[in-house]
Amino acid sequence: MxxxxxxxxxxxxxxxxxxxxxxxxxxxxxxxxxYAYSDKKEIKREDINLNEWSGNFTHDKKAKCPTVVMLNExxxxxxxxxxxxxxxxxxxxxxxxxxxxxxxxxxMKLYHEKNVTETFEIQDERKCISLPAIDIFKHAIKALxxxxxxxxxxxxxxxxxxxxxxVLTVPAIWSxxxxxxxxxxxxxxxxxxxxxxxxxxxxxxxxYCKTLPDRMQTYxxxxxxxxxxxxxGGGTIDIVVHKIMEDGTLAxxxxxxxxxxxxxxxDKEFKAFVYNLFKNDQCINQLWEVAPRDALDFEREFEAKxxxxxxxxxxxxxxxxxxxxxxxxxxxxxxKKIESITLAHIYVQNEEFxxxxxxxxxKIIGAIENIFAEVGTIDFIVLVGGFSCSHFLRNEIKRHxxxxxxxxxxxxxxxxxxxxxxxxxxxxxxxxxxxxCRYTYGIGVCEVFDSKIHPLGKRANIxxxxxxxxxxDVLVYKDELVKYDEVRTKNLQSTHRNKDQKFVKxxxxxxxxxxxxxxxxxxxxxxxxxxxxKIVWTPxxxxxxxxxxxxxxxxxxxxxxxxxxYETANKEHIKSTFELD
Length: 581
Hints:
The chain is α+β, with helices and mostly antiparallel strands. Helices cover 26% and strands 30% of the residues. Strands 1, 22, 23, 24, 27, 28 and 31 form a 7-stranded mixed β-sheet that branches. Strands 20-19-14-15-16-21-25 form a 7-stranded mixed β-sheet, with helices on both faces. Strand 29 and strand 30 form a beta hairpin. Helix 8 crosses helix 9. The longest helix is centred in the N-terminal third of the chain and has 22 residues. The protein starts with a strand and ends with a strand. The relative contact order is 0.13. The N terminus is likely disordered.
Protein backbone atom coordinates (compact mmCIF):
# COMPACT_ATOMS: atom_id res chain seq x y z
CA MET A 1 0.00 0.00 0.00
CA UNK A 2 1.48 3.36 -1.00
CA UNK A 3 1.45 6.48 1.16
CA UNK A 4 -0.79 9.12 -0.32
CA UNK A 5 0.74 11.98 -2.29
CA UNK A 6 -0.92 14.94 -3.93
CA UNK A 7 -1.97 14.20 -7.55
CA UNK A 8 -1.23 16.74 -10.27
CA UNK A 9 -2.04 16.97 -13.99
CA UNK A 10 0.34 18.01 -16.72
CA UNK A 11 0.65 17.50 -20.46
CA UNK A 12 4.22 16.80 -21.63
CA UNK A 13 5.15 17.25 -25.26
CA UNK A 14 7.61 14.45 -25.88
CA UNK A 15 8.36 12.97 -29.33
CA UNK A 16 6.82 9.68 -30.39
CA UNK A 17 8.66 6.65 -29.02
CA UNK A 18 7.63 4.59 -32.06
CA UNK A 19 10.34 4.88 -34.71
CA UNK A 20 10.71 2.09 -37.24
CA UNK A 21 11.43 1.25 -40.86
CA UNK A 22 8.59 -1.22 -41.31
CA UNK A 23 5.22 -1.67 -39.60
CA UNK A 24 3.50 -5.04 -39.33
CA UNK A 25 -0.10 -5.32 -38.13
CA UNK A 26 -1.11 -8.64 -36.54
CA UNK A 27 -4.74 -9.58 -36.00
CA UNK A 28 -5.53 -12.70 -33.96
CA UNK A 29 -9.27 -12.82 -34.60
CA UNK A 30 -12.07 -14.89 -33.12
CA UNK A 31 -12.57 -16.93 -36.27
CA UNK A 32 -9.87 -15.71 -38.67
CA UNK A 33 -6.42 -14.16 -38.35
CA UNK A 34 -4.05 -12.28 -40.61
CA TYR A 35 -1.39 -9.63 -41.00
CA ALA A 36 -0.49 -6.65 -43.17
CA TYR A 37 2.70 -4.63 -43.52
CA SER A 38 4.32 -1.68 -45.22
CA ASP A 39 7.73 -0.01 -45.11
CA LYS A 40 8.38 3.73 -45.13
CA LYS A 41 8.61 3.95 -48.91
CA GLU A 42 5.47 1.93 -49.48
CA ILE A 43 3.39 3.87 -46.97
CA LYS A 44 4.20 7.11 -48.83
CA ARG A 45 2.68 5.50 -51.94
CA GLU A 46 -0.25 4.26 -49.80
CA ASP A 47 0.76 0.65 -50.54
CA ILE A 48 -0.09 -1.88 -47.83
CA ASN A 49 0.74 -5.55 -48.32
CA LEU A 50 -1.74 -8.19 -47.16
CA ASN A 51 -0.93 -11.73 -46.08
CA GLU A 52 -0.85 -14.39 -48.79
CA TRP A 53 -1.63 -17.94 -47.72
CA SER A 54 -1.12 -21.23 -49.51
CA GLY A 55 -2.28 -24.79 -48.90
CA ASN A 56 -5.03 -27.26 -49.68
CA PHE A 57 -7.61 -25.39 -47.61
CA THR A 58 -6.91 -21.92 -49.01
CA HIS A 59 -9.83 -20.40 -50.94
CA ASP A 60 -8.63 -16.78 -51.12
CA LYS A 61 -4.90 -16.35 -50.54
CA LYS A 62 -5.30 -12.74 -49.34
CA ALA A 63 -8.17 -13.52 -47.00
CA LYS A 64 -7.44 -14.21 -43.35
CA CYS A 65 -6.62 -17.75 -42.25
CA PRO A 66 -8.58 -19.76 -39.66
CA THR A 67 -7.62 -19.00 -36.05
CA VAL A 68 -6.60 -22.56 -35.23
CA VAL A 69 -3.60 -23.67 -33.14
CA MET A 70 -2.49 -27.31 -33.29
CA LEU A 71 -0.25 -28.78 -30.59
CA ASN A 72 1.69 -32.05 -30.57
CA GLU A 73 1.22 -34.85 -28.09
CA UNK A 74 3.89 -33.30 -25.83
CA UNK A 75 1.98 -29.96 -26.04
CA UNK A 76 4.66 -28.34 -28.20
CA UNK A 77 3.61 -26.20 -31.17
CA UNK A 78 2.74 -28.01 -34.38
CA UNK A 79 1.00 -25.61 -36.78
CA UNK A 80 -1.37 -22.68 -37.18
CA UNK A 81 -4.09 -21.58 -39.60
CA UNK A 82 -4.49 -23.44 -42.88
CA UNK A 83 -1.52 -25.65 -42.07
CA UNK A 84 -3.22 -26.68 -38.82
CA UNK A 85 -6.45 -27.53 -40.68
CA UNK A 86 -4.52 -29.52 -43.31
CA UNK A 87 -2.48 -31.37 -40.68
CA UNK A 88 -5.57 -32.23 -38.66
CA UNK A 89 -7.32 -33.62 -41.75
CA UNK A 90 -4.33 -35.87 -42.48
CA UNK A 91 -4.22 -37.10 -38.89
CA UNK A 92 -7.94 -37.93 -38.99
CA UNK A 93 -7.33 -39.95 -42.16
CA UNK A 94 -4.49 -41.78 -40.41
CA UNK A 95 -6.64 -42.18 -37.27
CA UNK A 96 -3.92 -40.51 -35.13
CA UNK A 97 -5.66 -37.17 -34.51
CA UNK A 98 -6.51 -38.01 -30.90
CA UNK A 99 -2.82 -37.64 -30.04
CA UNK A 100 -2.94 -33.95 -30.90
CA UNK A 101 -4.64 -30.93 -29.36
CA UNK A 102 -6.61 -28.41 -31.38
CA UNK A 103 -7.56 -24.92 -30.16
CA UNK A 104 -10.27 -22.83 -31.87
CA UNK A 105 -12.50 -19.89 -30.89
CA UNK A 106 -10.24 -18.96 -27.97
CA UNK A 107 -10.11 -15.17 -28.40
CA MET A 108 -13.57 -14.60 -26.89
CA LYS A 109 -12.35 -16.18 -23.66
CA LEU A 110 -10.48 -12.93 -22.97
CA TYR A 111 -13.64 -10.89 -23.36
CA HIS A 112 -15.71 -13.07 -21.03
CA GLU A 113 -13.02 -13.52 -18.36
CA LYS A 114 -13.48 -10.79 -15.74
CA ASN A 115 -9.94 -10.98 -14.37
CA VAL A 116 -7.46 -11.97 -17.08
CA THR A 117 -4.17 -13.20 -15.64
CA GLU A 118 -1.07 -14.83 -17.07
CA THR A 119 -2.11 -18.12 -15.45
CA PHE A 120 -5.64 -18.05 -16.95
CA GLU A 121 -6.22 -21.39 -18.73
CA ILE A 122 -8.33 -22.53 -21.69
CA GLN A 123 -9.28 -26.00 -22.91
CA ASP A 124 -8.61 -27.61 -26.26
CA GLU A 125 -11.53 -28.35 -28.58
CA ARG A 126 -12.13 -31.86 -27.18
CA LYS A 127 -11.74 -30.58 -23.59
CA CYS A 128 -8.91 -33.05 -22.95
CA ILE A 129 -6.35 -30.60 -21.56
CA SER A 130 -6.18 -27.11 -20.10
CA LEU A 131 -3.21 -24.86 -20.86
CA PRO A 132 -2.32 -21.25 -20.09
CA ALA A 133 -4.15 -19.11 -22.61
CA ILE A 134 -1.08 -16.90 -22.96
CA ASP A 135 0.79 -19.82 -24.55
CA ILE A 136 -1.92 -20.41 -27.15
CA PHE A 137 -1.96 -16.70 -28.07
CA LYS A 138 1.84 -16.77 -28.13
CA HIS A 139 1.76 -19.55 -30.73
CA ALA A 140 -0.73 -17.66 -32.88
CA ILE A 141 1.25 -14.40 -32.76
CA LYS A 142 4.55 -16.18 -33.40
CA ALA A 143 3.06 -18.02 -36.39
CA LEU A 144 1.79 -14.77 -37.95
CA UNK A 145 5.13 -13.08 -37.27
CA UNK A 146 7.02 -15.99 -38.85
CA UNK A 147 4.79 -16.00 -41.94
CA UNK A 148 5.38 -12.26 -42.40
CA UNK A 149 9.16 -12.73 -42.14
CA UNK A 150 9.09 -15.43 -44.81
CA UNK A 151 6.82 -13.37 -47.08
CA UNK A 152 9.03 -10.29 -46.73
CA UNK A 153 12.13 -12.36 -47.45
CA UNK A 154 10.53 -13.78 -50.61
CA UNK A 155 9.76 -10.24 -51.80
CA UNK A 156 13.34 -9.17 -51.18
CA UNK A 157 12.43 -6.80 -48.35
CA UNK A 158 15.54 -6.18 -46.26
CA UNK A 159 15.18 -5.09 -42.65
CA UNK A 160 16.72 -5.55 -39.24
CA UNK A 161 14.54 -7.30 -36.62
CA UNK A 162 14.86 -4.33 -34.26
CA UNK A 163 13.55 -1.95 -36.97
CA UNK A 164 10.10 -3.55 -37.07
CA UNK A 165 7.12 -2.21 -35.13
CA UNK A 166 4.43 -4.83 -34.49
CA VAL A 167 0.91 -3.45 -34.11
CA LEU A 168 -1.51 -5.85 -32.41
CA THR A 169 -5.19 -5.16 -33.03
CA VAL A 170 -7.56 -5.51 -30.07
CA PRO A 171 -11.25 -4.69 -29.55
CA ALA A 172 -11.79 -1.23 -28.06
CA ILE A 173 -14.16 -2.75 -25.48
CA TRP A 174 -11.54 -5.11 -24.05
CA SER A 175 -10.47 -4.63 -20.45
CA UNK A 176 -7.05 -3.20 -19.62
CA UNK A 177 -5.99 -6.59 -18.27
CA UNK A 178 -6.94 -8.27 -21.57
CA UNK A 179 -4.93 -5.67 -23.52
CA UNK A 180 -1.94 -6.15 -21.24
CA UNK A 181 -2.34 -9.91 -21.69
CA UNK A 182 -1.91 -9.50 -25.46
CA UNK A 183 1.29 -7.52 -24.91
CA UNK A 184 2.65 -10.24 -22.63
CA UNK A 185 1.75 -12.91 -25.22
CA UNK A 186 3.59 -10.94 -27.92
CA UNK A 187 6.66 -10.65 -25.70
CA UNK A 188 6.56 -14.43 -25.15
CA UNK A 189 6.34 -14.78 -28.94
CA UNK A 190 9.73 -13.12 -29.23
CA UNK A 191 8.81 -9.47 -29.83
CA UNK A 192 10.61 -6.86 -27.73
CA UNK A 193 8.28 -4.76 -25.57
CA UNK A 194 9.55 -1.54 -27.17
CA UNK A 195 8.45 -2.90 -30.58
CA UNK A 196 4.83 -3.55 -29.55
CA UNK A 197 1.95 -1.14 -30.06
CA UNK A 198 -1.73 -1.89 -29.54
CA UNK A 199 -4.30 -0.54 -32.00
CA UNK A 200 -7.99 -0.42 -31.14
CA UNK A 201 -9.80 -2.07 -34.02
CA UNK A 202 -12.52 0.53 -34.76
CA UNK A 203 -9.94 3.33 -34.48
CA UNK A 204 -7.71 1.59 -37.02
CA UNK A 205 -10.69 1.28 -39.36
CA UNK A 206 -11.48 4.98 -38.94
CA UNK A 207 -7.89 5.95 -39.72
CA TYR A 208 -7.92 3.85 -42.89
CA CYS A 209 -11.17 5.42 -44.11
CA LYS A 210 -9.98 8.94 -43.30
CA THR A 211 -6.47 8.52 -44.74
CA LEU A 212 -7.29 6.60 -47.92
CA PRO A 213 -10.71 7.96 -48.95
CA ASP A 214 -10.06 7.42 -52.67
CA ARG A 215 -10.32 3.65 -52.12
CA MET A 216 -13.90 3.81 -50.92
CA GLN A 217 -17.15 5.59 -51.50
CA THR A 218 -17.07 8.07 -48.67
CA TYR A 219 -18.25 11.37 -47.35
CA UNK A 220 -15.86 14.16 -46.41
CA UNK A 221 -13.75 13.76 -43.28
CA UNK A 222 -13.54 17.50 -42.71
CA UNK A 223 -12.88 19.26 -39.36
CA UNK A 224 -16.03 19.31 -37.26
CA UNK A 225 -17.37 16.06 -38.77
CA UNK A 226 -18.80 13.66 -36.19
CA UNK A 227 -19.14 10.00 -37.18
CA UNK A 228 -19.52 6.50 -35.77
CA UNK A 229 -17.46 3.42 -36.59
CA UNK A 230 -19.38 0.18 -36.27
CA UNK A 231 -16.81 -2.61 -36.32
CA UNK A 232 -18.72 -5.87 -36.63
CA GLY A 233 -16.37 -8.80 -36.21
CA GLY A 234 -16.73 -12.50 -35.66
CA GLY A 235 -16.77 -12.26 -31.87
CA THR A 236 -17.43 -8.70 -30.79
CA ILE A 237 -19.21 -5.57 -31.97
CA ASP A 238 -16.99 -2.54 -31.34
CA ILE A 239 -18.43 0.97 -31.55
CA VAL A 240 -16.64 4.32 -31.31
CA VAL A 241 -17.76 7.87 -32.07
CA HIS A 242 -15.16 10.40 -33.26
CA LYS A 243 -15.00 14.05 -34.13
CA ILE A 244 -12.49 15.42 -36.63
CA MET A 245 -10.47 18.16 -34.97
CA GLU A 246 -9.16 21.32 -36.66
CA ASP A 247 -5.69 19.77 -37.10
CA GLY A 248 -7.19 16.69 -38.77
CA THR A 249 -6.71 14.36 -35.79
CA LEU A 250 -9.51 12.36 -34.19
CA ALA A 251 -11.03 12.70 -30.72
CA UNK A 252 -13.48 10.38 -29.03
CA UNK A 253 -16.94 11.82 -28.44
CA UNK A 254 -18.36 8.75 -26.68
CA UNK A 255 -16.56 5.99 -24.83
CA UNK A 256 -15.93 2.73 -26.72
CA UNK A 257 -18.91 0.40 -26.35
CA UNK A 258 -20.36 -2.82 -27.79
CA UNK A 259 -20.66 -6.46 -26.83
CA UNK A 260 -20.31 -10.11 -27.81
CA UNK A 261 -22.86 -9.94 -30.62
CA UNK A 262 -20.57 -10.75 -33.55
CA UNK A 263 -21.00 -13.16 -36.44
CA UNK A 264 -20.47 -16.25 -34.30
CA UNK A 265 -23.96 -15.67 -32.84
CA UNK A 266 -25.40 -16.40 -36.29
CA ASP A 267 -23.17 -19.47 -36.53
CA LYS A 268 -24.54 -20.76 -33.22
CA GLU A 269 -28.12 -20.24 -34.40
CA PHE A 270 -27.41 -22.21 -37.57
CA LYS A 271 -25.78 -25.03 -35.63
CA ALA A 272 -28.81 -25.18 -33.33
CA PHE A 273 -30.97 -25.50 -36.45
CA VAL A 274 -28.83 -28.40 -37.73
CA TYR A 275 -28.82 -30.11 -34.33
CA ASN A 276 -32.59 -29.94 -34.19
CA LEU A 277 -32.89 -31.13 -37.78
CA PHE A 278 -30.69 -34.17 -37.17
CA LYS A 279 -31.92 -34.73 -33.60
CA ASN A 280 -28.31 -34.80 -32.45
CA ASP A 281 -26.57 -31.86 -30.75
CA GLN A 282 -23.14 -33.38 -31.37
CA CYS A 283 -23.44 -34.13 -35.08
CA ILE A 284 -21.17 -31.30 -36.32
CA ASN A 285 -18.48 -32.08 -33.73
CA GLN A 286 -18.70 -35.71 -34.77
CA LEU A 287 -18.26 -34.72 -38.42
CA TRP A 288 -15.09 -32.84 -37.48
CA GLU A 289 -13.79 -36.03 -35.87
CA VAL A 290 -14.22 -38.18 -39.00
CA ALA A 291 -14.20 -35.77 -41.95
CA PRO A 292 -12.68 -32.36 -41.11
CA ARG A 293 -12.46 -31.32 -44.75
CA ASP A 294 -16.21 -31.89 -45.12
CA ALA A 295 -16.88 -30.02 -41.87
CA LEU A 296 -14.74 -27.08 -42.98
CA ASP A 297 -16.44 -26.95 -46.40
CA PHE A 298 -19.82 -27.02 -44.65
CA GLU A 299 -18.82 -24.10 -42.40
CA ARG A 300 -17.43 -22.13 -45.33
CA GLU A 301 -20.52 -22.60 -47.45
CA PHE A 302 -22.68 -21.36 -44.59
CA GLU A 303 -20.33 -18.37 -44.15
CA ALA A 304 -20.74 -17.55 -47.84
CA LYS A 305 -24.56 -17.80 -47.59
CA UNK A 306 -24.44 -15.64 -44.45
CA UNK A 307 -22.74 -12.90 -46.46
CA UNK A 308 -24.76 -13.30 -49.66
CA UNK A 309 -28.35 -13.43 -48.44
CA UNK A 310 -30.29 -10.28 -49.25
CA UNK A 311 -33.51 -8.84 -47.90
CA UNK A 312 -35.25 -9.23 -51.26
CA UNK A 313 -34.55 -12.96 -51.62
CA UNK A 314 -37.54 -15.28 -51.28
CA UNK A 315 -36.03 -18.62 -52.25
CA UNK A 316 -34.99 -21.13 -49.62
CA UNK A 317 -31.29 -21.23 -48.79
CA UNK A 318 -29.65 -24.41 -50.08
CA UNK A 319 -26.49 -25.91 -48.62
CA UNK A 320 -24.69 -29.03 -49.75
CA UNK A 321 -25.25 -31.88 -47.27
CA UNK A 322 -21.94 -33.56 -46.31
CA UNK A 323 -22.40 -37.25 -47.02
CA UNK A 324 -20.78 -38.32 -43.77
CA UNK A 325 -22.90 -35.95 -41.70
CA UNK A 326 -25.77 -38.35 -42.40
CA UNK A 327 -23.98 -40.95 -40.28
CA UNK A 328 -24.85 -38.94 -37.17
CA UNK A 329 -28.47 -38.17 -37.94
CA UNK A 330 -31.17 -39.66 -35.73
CA UNK A 331 -33.77 -39.40 -38.48
CA UNK A 332 -34.87 -41.39 -41.52
CA UNK A 333 -33.75 -39.86 -44.80
CA UNK A 334 -36.45 -39.75 -47.42
CA UNK A 335 -39.13 -39.07 -44.79
CA LYS A 336 -41.56 -36.78 -46.61
CA LYS A 337 -42.43 -35.08 -43.31
CA ILE A 338 -38.93 -33.61 -43.18
CA GLU A 339 -38.91 -31.07 -45.97
CA SER A 340 -35.61 -29.43 -44.99
CA ILE A 341 -33.41 -32.36 -46.04
CA THR A 342 -32.90 -34.24 -49.28
CA LEU A 343 -30.28 -36.86 -49.99
CA ALA A 344 -27.91 -34.15 -51.23
CA HIS A 345 -28.91 -30.83 -49.63
CA ILE A 346 -30.17 -29.00 -46.56
CA TYR A 347 -32.80 -26.34 -47.19
CA VAL A 348 -33.44 -23.45 -44.81
CA GLN A 349 -36.52 -21.31 -45.33
CA ASN A 350 -35.49 -17.79 -46.18
CA GLU A 351 -37.36 -16.28 -43.25
CA GLU A 352 -35.86 -18.80 -40.83
CA PHE A 353 -32.36 -18.08 -42.16
CA UNK A 354 -32.89 -14.36 -41.53
CA UNK A 355 -33.99 -15.16 -38.00
CA UNK A 356 -30.47 -16.44 -37.32
CA UNK A 357 -29.44 -12.75 -37.35
CA UNK A 358 -32.19 -11.52 -35.01
CA UNK A 359 -30.27 -11.50 -31.72
CA UNK A 360 -27.19 -9.80 -33.17
CA UNK A 361 -29.27 -7.31 -35.19
CA UNK A 362 -31.41 -6.27 -32.22
CA LYS A 363 -28.40 -5.88 -29.90
CA ILE A 364 -26.50 -3.77 -32.46
CA ILE A 365 -29.48 -1.51 -33.22
CA GLY A 366 -30.17 -1.08 -29.50
CA ALA A 367 -26.55 -0.08 -28.86
CA ILE A 368 -26.62 2.51 -31.65
CA GLU A 369 -29.89 3.98 -30.33
CA ASN A 370 -28.40 4.29 -26.83
CA ILE A 371 -25.37 6.14 -28.19
CA PHE A 372 -27.54 8.52 -30.26
CA ALA A 373 -29.48 9.34 -27.09
CA GLU A 374 -26.19 10.45 -25.50
CA VAL A 375 -24.32 12.19 -28.34
CA GLY A 376 -27.16 13.53 -30.50
CA THR A 377 -26.83 13.66 -34.28
CA ILE A 378 -23.84 12.39 -36.24
CA ASP A 379 -22.87 12.85 -39.88
CA PHE A 380 -22.45 9.22 -40.91
CA ILE A 381 -21.77 5.63 -39.78
CA VAL A 382 -18.87 3.55 -41.14
CA LEU A 383 -19.56 -0.21 -41.33
CA VAL A 384 -16.45 -2.42 -41.17
CA GLY A 385 -15.40 -5.89 -40.02
CA GLY A 386 -16.07 -9.38 -41.35
CA PHE A 387 -19.66 -9.50 -40.10
CA SER A 388 -20.43 -6.29 -42.01
CA CYS A 389 -19.84 -8.27 -45.23
CA SER A 390 -23.39 -9.56 -44.71
CA HIS A 391 -25.67 -7.64 -47.12
CA PHE A 392 -28.70 -8.58 -45.06
CA LEU A 393 -27.30 -7.30 -41.77
CA ARG A 394 -26.12 -4.04 -43.32
CA ASN A 395 -29.53 -3.41 -44.84
CA GLU A 396 -31.36 -4.32 -41.62
CA ILE A 397 -29.38 -1.67 -39.78
CA LYS A 398 -29.70 0.96 -42.51
CA ARG A 399 -33.44 0.69 -42.86
CA HIS A 400 -34.20 0.93 -39.15
CA UNK A 401 -36.68 3.83 -38.74
CA UNK A 402 -34.53 5.61 -36.18
CA UNK A 403 -31.62 5.81 -38.64
CA UNK A 404 -33.50 7.11 -41.69
CA UNK A 405 -31.60 10.42 -41.72
CA UNK A 406 -28.17 8.83 -41.20
CA UNK A 407 -25.71 8.26 -44.05
CA UNK A 408 -23.86 4.93 -44.10
CA UNK A 409 -20.43 4.10 -45.53
CA UNK A 410 -19.45 0.54 -46.50
CA UNK A 411 -15.82 0.48 -47.70
CA UNK A 412 -14.60 -2.12 -50.15
CA UNK A 413 -13.39 -5.32 -48.48
CA UNK A 414 -14.59 -4.28 -45.00
CA UNK A 415 -13.01 -7.38 -43.46
CA UNK A 416 -9.52 -6.10 -44.40
CA UNK A 417 -9.96 -2.47 -43.34
CA UNK A 418 -8.89 -2.93 -39.69
CA UNK A 419 -5.62 -4.65 -40.63
CA UNK A 420 -4.68 -1.99 -43.16
CA UNK A 421 -5.69 0.77 -40.78
CA UNK A 422 -3.52 -0.77 -38.07
CA UNK A 423 -0.48 -0.41 -40.35
CA UNK A 424 -1.30 3.28 -40.78
CA UNK A 425 -1.74 3.57 -37.01
CA UNK A 426 1.79 2.26 -36.54
CA UNK A 427 3.09 5.26 -38.48
CA UNK A 428 0.60 7.71 -36.93
CA UNK A 429 0.01 6.52 -33.33
CA UNK A 430 -1.19 10.00 -32.32
CA UNK A 431 -3.99 10.01 -34.90
CA UNK A 432 -6.50 9.80 -32.04
CA UNK A 433 -5.62 12.71 -29.76
CA UNK A 434 -8.16 12.16 -26.97
CA UNK A 435 -10.12 9.22 -25.59
CA UNK A 436 -12.91 8.83 -23.04
CA CYS A 437 -12.23 6.58 -20.05
CA ARG A 438 -14.53 3.59 -19.75
CA TYR A 439 -13.83 3.20 -16.01
CA THR A 440 -12.70 5.18 -12.99
CA TYR A 441 -9.09 4.21 -12.28
CA GLY A 442 -7.07 4.62 -9.11
CA ILE A 443 -4.68 3.02 -6.64
CA GLY A 444 -4.94 1.85 -3.04
CA VAL A 445 -3.19 4.17 -0.60
CA CYS A 446 -2.74 4.71 3.13
CA GLU A 447 -3.97 7.93 4.72
CA VAL A 448 -3.45 9.35 8.22
CA PHE A 449 -6.28 7.78 10.23
CA ASP A 450 -9.15 10.13 11.08
CA SER A 451 -11.78 8.60 13.36
CA LYS A 452 -14.35 11.12 12.10
CA ILE A 453 -14.37 9.75 8.55
CA HIS A 454 -12.51 6.43 8.59
CA PRO A 455 -13.98 3.11 9.82
CA LEU A 456 -12.14 1.40 12.68
CA GLY A 457 -11.83 -1.76 10.60
CA LYS A 458 -9.44 0.09 8.27
CA ARG A 459 -7.13 1.38 11.04
CA ALA A 460 -3.60 -0.04 11.03
CA ASN A 461 -0.27 0.77 12.67
CA ILE A 462 2.39 1.23 9.98
CA UNK A 463 5.93 2.10 11.08
CA UNK A 464 4.51 3.52 14.32
CA UNK A 465 1.92 5.72 12.61
CA UNK A 466 -1.88 5.32 12.71
CA UNK A 467 -3.00 4.82 9.12
CA UNK A 468 -6.23 4.10 7.25
CA UNK A 469 -5.54 1.38 4.70
CA UNK A 470 -7.19 0.44 1.37
CA UNK A 471 -8.29 4.01 0.51
CA UNK A 472 -9.14 4.33 -3.18
CA ASP A 473 -7.22 7.28 -4.59
CA VAL A 474 -8.71 8.36 -7.94
CA LEU A 475 -6.40 9.02 -10.87
CA VAL A 476 -9.05 9.52 -13.57
CA TYR A 477 -12.84 9.33 -13.59
CA LYS A 478 -15.14 7.34 -15.86
CA ASP A 479 -16.35 9.33 -18.92
CA GLU A 480 -13.49 11.81 -18.51
CA LEU A 481 -11.90 12.96 -21.80
CA VAL A 482 -8.14 12.40 -21.58
CA LYS A 483 -5.68 13.66 -24.19
CA TYR A 484 -3.03 11.39 -25.71
CA ASP A 485 -0.11 13.00 -23.88
CA GLU A 486 -2.05 13.99 -20.76
CA VAL A 487 -0.48 12.43 -17.71
CA ARG A 488 -1.79 11.83 -14.22
CA THR A 489 1.07 12.19 -11.76
CA LYS A 490 1.27 10.65 -8.32
CA ASN A 491 4.01 11.42 -5.82
CA LEU A 492 4.66 8.41 -3.59
CA GLN A 493 7.23 7.29 -1.06
CA SER A 494 8.40 4.03 0.43
CA THR A 495 10.81 3.11 3.22
CA HIS A 496 13.40 0.33 3.13
CA ARG A 497 15.23 0.58 6.44
CA ASN A 498 15.46 -3.16 6.97
CA LYS A 499 18.06 -5.05 4.94
CA ASP A 500 15.49 -7.60 3.78
CA GLN A 501 13.59 -4.76 2.06
CA LYS A 502 16.53 -3.40 0.08
CA PHE A 503 16.12 -5.71 -2.93
CA VAL A 504 12.38 -6.36 -2.79
CA LYS A 505 10.28 -5.19 -5.73
CA UNK A 506 7.83 -2.43 -4.86
CA UNK A 507 4.23 -3.07 -5.94
CA UNK A 508 1.08 -0.96 -6.07
CA UNK A 509 -2.21 -2.32 -7.35
CA UNK A 510 -4.23 -0.45 -9.97
CA UNK A 511 -8.01 -0.69 -9.60
CA UNK A 512 -11.01 0.10 -11.75
CA UNK A 513 -14.68 0.70 -10.96
CA UNK A 514 -17.75 1.91 -12.83
CA UNK A 515 -19.85 3.40 -10.03
CA UNK A 516 -17.62 5.89 -8.26
CA UNK A 517 -19.22 9.10 -6.97
CA UNK A 518 -16.89 12.09 -7.25
CA UNK A 519 -15.53 13.22 -3.89
CA UNK A 520 -16.90 10.20 -2.02
CA UNK A 521 -14.61 8.20 0.27
CA UNK A 522 -14.24 4.68 -1.12
CA UNK A 523 -12.08 1.64 -0.45
CA UNK A 524 -10.54 -0.80 -2.90
CA UNK A 525 -12.24 -3.60 -0.98
CA UNK A 526 -15.72 -2.17 -1.68
CA UNK A 527 -18.11 -4.02 -3.99
CA UNK A 528 -17.59 -3.16 -7.65
CA UNK A 529 -13.84 -2.49 -7.37
CA UNK A 530 -11.54 -4.76 -9.35
CA UNK A 531 -7.77 -5.03 -9.42
CA UNK A 532 -6.55 -5.00 -13.02
CA UNK A 533 -2.88 -5.52 -12.23
CA LYS A 534 0.13 -4.22 -10.34
CA ILE A 535 2.60 -1.45 -11.05
CA VAL A 536 5.93 -3.04 -10.17
CA TRP A 537 9.22 -1.22 -9.53
CA THR A 538 12.53 -3.05 -9.66
CA PRO A 539 15.26 -1.97 -7.19
CA UNK A 540 18.59 -0.66 -8.54
CA UNK A 541 21.62 -2.96 -8.51
CA UNK A 542 22.78 -1.40 -5.24
CA UNK A 543 19.36 -1.84 -3.62
CA UNK A 544 16.84 0.74 -2.43
CA UNK A 545 17.99 3.61 -0.19
CA UNK A 546 16.32 3.88 3.23
CA UNK A 547 13.66 6.14 1.77
CA UNK A 548 12.54 6.56 -1.81
CA UNK A 549 10.47 9.50 -3.04
CA UNK A 550 9.25 8.73 -6.52
CA UNK A 551 6.94 10.22 -9.11
CA UNK A 552 4.63 7.95 -11.09
CA UNK A 553 3.28 9.18 -14.43
CA UNK A 554 0.31 7.30 -15.87
CA UNK A 555 -1.10 7.92 -19.35
CA UNK A 556 -4.78 7.02 -19.75
CA UNK A 557 -5.37 8.63 -23.17
CA UNK A 558 -3.55 6.02 -25.27
CA UNK A 559 -4.68 2.64 -26.56
CA UNK A 560 -3.57 1.05 -23.29
CA UNK A 561 -2.38 2.38 -19.95
CA UNK A 562 1.28 3.48 -20.01
CA UNK A 563 3.39 4.01 -16.88
CA UNK A 564 6.65 5.87 -16.24
CA UNK A 565 8.44 6.34 -12.90
CA TYR A 566 11.22 8.69 -11.77
CA GLU A 567 12.97 9.52 -8.53
CA THR A 568 11.36 12.80 -7.50
CA ALA A 569 14.58 14.61 -6.55
CA ASN A 570 17.00 13.72 -9.36
CA LYS A 571 14.48 12.69 -12.06
CA GLU A 572 16.39 9.43 -12.52
CA HIS A 573 14.32 6.75 -14.25
CA ILE A 574 13.12 3.81 -12.14
CA LYS A 575 12.34 0.64 -14.05
CA SER A 576 8.60 0.01 -13.85
CA THR A 577 6.34 -2.61 -15.40
CA PHE A 578 2.64 -3.36 -15.35
CA GLU A 579 2.01 -6.96 -14.34
CA LEU A 580 -1.18 -8.98 -14.40
CA ASP A 581 -2.28 -10.71 -11.20
